Amino acid sequence: MVKGSDLLVAALENEGVERVFGVPGEENLDVVESLRKSSIKLIVTRHEQPAAFMAATYGRLTGKPGVCLTTLGPGALNLTTGAAYALLGAMPMVMITGQKGILSSRQAKFQIVDIVSTFRPLTKLSLQIVSTATIPTLVRDAFRIATQERPGPVLLELPEDIAGEEAEPVAMILPHPIEIPIAHAAALDRAADMILKAQRPLIMLGAAASRPRSTAGIGDFVRRTRIPFFTTQMGKGTVSHGTNLYMGTAALSERDYVHEAIDRADLIIAIGHDTIEKPPFIMGPKGPQVIHVGYTAANVEQVYFPQCEVIGDVGPSLELLAGRVEGKLPHASALQSLREGILTKIGDRATEGRWPPTPQRIVHDVRQVIPEDGIVALDNGMYKIWFARNYRTLLANSLLLDNALATMGAGLPSAMMAAMLYPKNRVLAICGDGGFMMNSQELETAVRLKLNLVILILEDSAYGMIRWKQAVDDFPDFGLTFGNPDFVKYAESYGAKGSRIESTEAIVPTLERAFAGGGVHLVVVPIDYSENKRVLVDELREKLTQIDVS
Ligand SMILES: Cc1ncc(C[n+]2csc(CCOP(=O)(O)OP(=O)(O)O)c2C)c(N)n1
Ligand SMILES: [Mg+2]
After folding, report:
1. Bridge-partner residues for 195, per DSSP?
2. Ligand 1: distance of its center to the CA of 88 in Å?
3. Quick one: what percent of the chain has pLDDT higher than 90?
4. Which of 121-125, 133-137, 272-276, 347-351 is predicted least confidently?
5. CA 489, CA 493: separation in Å to the nearest integer?
6. What DSSP line would sit under 374-426, residue for residue?
7. Exposure of 220 by Cβ count < 10 A (0-12 exposed, 13-18 middle, 19+ buried)?
8. For range 340-363, the mean pLDDT
9. With a 6 A CB cut-off, is 359 part of the ligand 1 pocket?
């Protein structure tokens, strides 16, 4: 005989799960015991929210669902932000939560929250397991739903008595590969016709272009057509190893330098754009035509309503599309002459030596210490705009940022996941002093796991991004500043290393030393945010009508 929890864990092993992140409760103890006897590693975190951020990031980086585990009520509720992060960010994740027994009720309503209903709008599927016999089927279905386009989170609630119930062994359902259909020939013909007629085409790479399965086909399409491209914040890096066709990243919605090219384009081939991102450009009645290339149909929005859709497996569909237009595009590089001007303006003042350093200098210096395959994971704050705009990526998913839920607190956990998956690569978390403190307790987890990870904290003793927006809107400076712990001592108290950067010249050598030393190393640097106003407001004033922050 086996128990319900044994069936659950066997079903997870059947899916190839290697790690489960979370904080167990009393209701999960059977599951914990089954995990102890399994091949799966239980990674205990210090809060459930970062466990979900780690599981979601596992899904983002591998294409396979990450798994997290919590107790009922309070523990499960702590997953809400992580569920929304995975839902908006299209990251496959399976959450397993506990519950009091459902066959009898010996604790009345103590700790009981209707978690399945709470998570319905935050997941693709949320349900309770009510019998041991259905566990293999429900787990297989959960993984299938979490993985299939558009990917996202699923919640399974396993009540304590079903987990502990003795059961007959039930056969597992083996996963099988699923091919995604390739776009219809008629759609490819229509798109090819528009591309052949375009005088000033541009390619845009969006969030879904960064899916692990997408990247090869997209790079080939760009190289074969020679059409210049720009990216959204979450589409950065998809064309690997760089080309001279990169025009910039649309970190703002309009009137940034990259929009000089976007505004002149008569056709934008939007590959993998997901309107969950802050709009990279605003479609209007007069602007360019748009071809949407994606796994799923485009959402129709006030700011995005493509005139043509190529729906299907992105890489192979683009291969067919490239075959229809390659060598027949005399106007492919019409907008490329704008490239140098755009990139030069973006790179302005990147080496300025002022103290405290500017965001541009920090972006520049970080790039110096991160090799091509290194991974930078951002939390959410003002510096995200600067990194999205100014940081040049050479590989997909080498700048992990969240332009979907745009939550604070995910920087450290997402970097920890990257460090677990790629122990030989340099991994750097970059956090504001606000966002870092929202999940800083996970320093303990990082030290316990013996991760190699550097964390760079940008200190302005404020919720800087909101303070900036407050100033831009001419509100008085109020309600957005705070004090900080001594970050070096704070890191040391966790058994990590800590360094404070005292001069602009010391940024590169301090980060180099932190990486060379290994282990978990926190580096703190003050930041001069006066550039936010000078560049993103005054310099772009002519261009920028509305600044939208989150
Ligand atoms: C969980 C959460 N709370 C609030 C916000 C709104 N918000 C966006 S950026 C920001 C300030 C970030 O401050 P910090 O981490 O110090 O970065 P800084 O902008 O100062 O560099 C706030 C409050 C958010 N995005 N997520
Ligand atoms: Mg701050």
Report:
1. none
2. 18
3. 89
4. 347-351
5. 6
6. -EEEE-SSHHHHHHHHH---SSTTSEE--SSS--TT-HHHHHHHHHHH-TTS-
7. middle
8. 94
9. no
Tokens (6 digits) for 301: 């929005």
CB count, 10 Å around CB of 523? 25
Neighbouring residues of 322: CB distance < 8 A, sequence distance ≥ 6 = 220, 221, 224, 225
All residues with CB under 5 Å from ion ligand 2: 432-434, 460, 462, 464
pLDDT confidence of residue 543: 59
Give yes or no for residue 464 CB within 6 A of ligand 1.
yes
Confidence of residue 542 (pLDDT cuts 50, 70, 90): low
Residue 390's Cβ-count burial label (10 Å; 0-12, 13-18, 19+) is: buried
Contact 214, 314 (CB under 8 A): yes
Rounded-to-integer distance, Cα 309 and Cα 296, Å: 9
By most ligand atoms within 8 Å of CB, the mutation choice from 408, 468, 529, 536 for ligand 1 is 408
Average pLDDT over residues 239-261: 88
Instruction: Give the number of whichever ligand sits closest to the CA of residue 437.
Output: 1
Ligand 2 centroid to Cα of residue 505, in Å, is 22
Residues 299-317 pLDDT 10s = 999 999 999 999 999 999 9
Q: Residue 380 C-alpha to ligand 2 middle, in angstroms?
A: 10
* Any atom of ligand 1 within 6 Å of the Cβ of 419: no
Q: Which of 140-144, 350-354, 471-475, 536-540 has the lowest mean pLDDT?
A: 536-540
Q: How far is the CA of 483 from the centre of ligand 2 (A)?
A: 10
For residue 241, what pLDDT band results from cuts at 50, 70 and 90? low
What per-residue confidence (pLDDT) applies to 545? 47
- pLDDT for the residue numbered 242: 65
Distance between CA atoms of 134 and 149, rounded to whole angstroms?
24
In this structure, which ligand is nearest to the CA of 434? 1
How far the first Cα of the chain sits from its last, in Å, is: 53
Instruction: Return the half-sphere exposure (C-beta side, CA atoms, 13 A cut-off) of residue 395.
Output: 12
Model's pTM, two decimal places? Answer: 0.96
Q: Is 312 in the pocket of ligand 1 (CB under 6 A)?
A: no
Residue recorded with tokens 């219809």: 184
CA of 460 to the centre of ligand 2 (A): 5
CB 402 near ligand 1, within 6 Å = no
Residue whose structure tokens are 């405290």: 356
Dist. CA 408–CA 386, nearest whole Å: 16
Ligand 1 proximity of 382 Cβ (cutoff 6 Å): yes
Q: Is 458 in the pocket of ligand 1 (CB under 6 A)?
A: yes
The reply to whether ligand 1 has any atom less than 6 angstroms from the CB of 65 is: no
Q: Is the CB of 434 under 6 A from ligand 1?
A: yes
* Closest ligand by atom to 431 CA: 1
Instruction: Please tell me the number of the ligand nearest to residue 467's CA.
Output: 1
